[in-house]
Amino acid sequence: MIRFFRGEEKVVSRINQLIDKGIGISSVSLAELYHGAEKSMKTKQGIRDIKRLLDVPDIQALNFKDKEAREFGKLMNKLEKAGLKISPVDLLIAVTAKVNKLIILTGDKKHFSRLNRFGIKVEAL
User: Fold this and answer.
1) How do residues 21-67 score in pLDDT, each as one tens digit?
2) Fewer CB in 10 Å around end: N or C, the chain?
3) Hey, where are the domains in the chain?
4) 3-state DSSP: the chain helix, strand, coil percent, rounded to 5?
5) Whole-prediction pTM
6) Alpha carbons 116 and 64: distance in angstroms, whole number
7) Other C-beta atoms within 10 Å of 77: how many?
8) pLDDT tens digits for 103-114?
9) Measured torsion, CA atoms of residues 49, 110, 65, 120, in degrees rounded to the nearest 10
10) In CATH, what is the architecture of 2-124?
C-alpha cells in the first residue's frame, strides 16, 4: 500500500484493475501503515492517506478473528516443521488473505512467495 500511496504506476494500475472486484486490507497491514505514518516526517498526511483509503467503498478492512487465529496456529506449525521462517506479522497478513479467499498483492516476494505451497495465493508487484 505504501507503493500505492507513492503513486507507483505498476501498483496503481493493478489496484485499479481489481478495485471493482473488491479489495481487502488486513487490520494487521493497517497497523503497519499507521506505524509508518507515526514515524514519518509527514504523520498527518500519512494518516489522512490511510483514512481516504478506508473511505473507498470497494476497500474493506479485514479484522483478525477466530478463523484467522486458528489458521495462524496451523500454518505456523507447518512452517516450523518445514524449517521455514516467516515473521509472525507477515503470517497474520497471509492467513487473513487465505481465510477470506484473497490474493496477497505484495512487493515482498521473498517472504510471501514461500507460502504458495500452503494454499496462499501471492502476486508479486
Assistant:
1) 889 999 999 999 999 999 999 999 999 999 988 988 889 999 999 99
2) C
3) 2-124
4) 65, 15, 20
5) 0.86
6) 21
7) 10
8) 999 887 777 888
9) 120
10) 3-Layer(aba) Sandwich (3.40)
